[in-house]
Amino acid sequence: MFKRFLTMIISLIVSITFILDNAAYADTLNLKAKSAILMEASSGQILYEKDSHKPLPPASVTKVMTLLLAIEAIDSGKIKMTDKVVTSKHAFDMGGTQIYLEIGEEMTVDDLMKAIAMNSANDASVALAEYIAGTEENFVEMMNKRAKELGAKNTTFKNATGLPEEGHLTTVYDIAMISQELVKHESIFKYLTNKLDSLRNGKFSLINTNKLLWRYKGVDGIKTGSTSEALYCMAATAKRGDTRLIAVVFGAPDSETRFNETAKLLDYGFANYETIKVASKGQSFGTVKVLKGRKQVTNAICYNDEYILIKKGEGKNIKTEVELKDFIFAPLGRKMSIGVVKVIQEGKVIKTFDLYPKEIVEKANFFENLNRIFFGWLKYQ
To answer: What radius of gyration, in Å, describes the C-alpha atoms of the chain?
Structure first.
């Protein structure tokens, strides 16, 4: 409990430091967009923000959440890429950007994902939403529930497309968090990075609306959007080395300003910060004795890749300290913390993460313990 509290305090201090450091720079960007944010993806650290918690209409950037729920359904096995989706009248009736689905037309989940990610097709979004949840209304409930789970406190979705509807609002901060979750799914990049493709055996062409795919080094997503109400919006992500950034802009006055200001945010992030990997998924940091278990020792590993974000040129004095428990009693579950790693820069702890058992260790039975005592006695005779 204390360790969790300490971790929260450290994260809060680091966040406040970053915000203060970037406050002066915020005035020099001179963004025309109504709101904007720049986030480092692995940590969620905010590097820049302008009215980041102001609820605004997001237009088709809404589809970041639509894509997240879809890729989660695919990766969990709920639906398959090869599944064929039948177009309903409701999907057919969607206005705005579309791929002109006909009532009763069948299209695979894979092709619908292309249409949503590349072409921002509203009819494809609704067709897939209905396939996942039964109705668009049910899907919207899923969207709002997932948004709350991710900490998106100022988001209310009313549809799966982003078409104008009263009360359909979110913030650049919330979209950045949703985007952060989306890019954890490697399989989504098949769609986000696809520049040119087609549907219906080549009869319908798709051109990705994200022009930064052609213009900006490292950009590999995510989604554009525009309506007369929302103006021009965008959620973008780019990766260089181990550093992945997420930039979101809402309410830019025109399309070119949207792309230019998104690029300006990414430029600032890559010019001033870098992400350093401090641990790899499954990496062992030592062993811990297990008492009364079927195994007498277990490796202490981290469950995820762990990164730190630092200002460029400040990565030389980074070190780690490992604190492991002397012993632990069986039974031992995979989610039981058995140690902690502290990442230290110039004497200050800038990150901590827990270590866990490499495997489940069950409690030894009476005969196993008796056998262990007997052979231990023989060893010292």
So the answer is: 25
Catalytic residue among 34, 63, 223, 239: 63
The strand pairing partners of 148, in sequence order, are: none
Q: Point out the catalytic residue in the list 120, 125, 179, 226.
A: 120
**Is 120 considered catalytic here?**
yes
Domains of the chain with bracketed CATH? 25-271 (3.40.710.10), 280-374 (2.60.410.10)
Distance between CA atoms of 183 and 62, rounded to whole angstroms? 15
- What are the tens digits of pLDDT across the range 228-251? 999 999 999 999 999 999 999 999
Is there a contact between 249 and 52 (Cβ–Cβ < 8 Å)?
A: no
> For residue 360, what are its two tokens?
């489940």
The answer to whether residue 255 is catalytic is no
**pLDDT tens digit string along 86-145?**
999 999 999 999 999 999 999 999 999 999 999 999 999 999 999 999 999 999 999 999
Structure tokens at 25: 């720079």
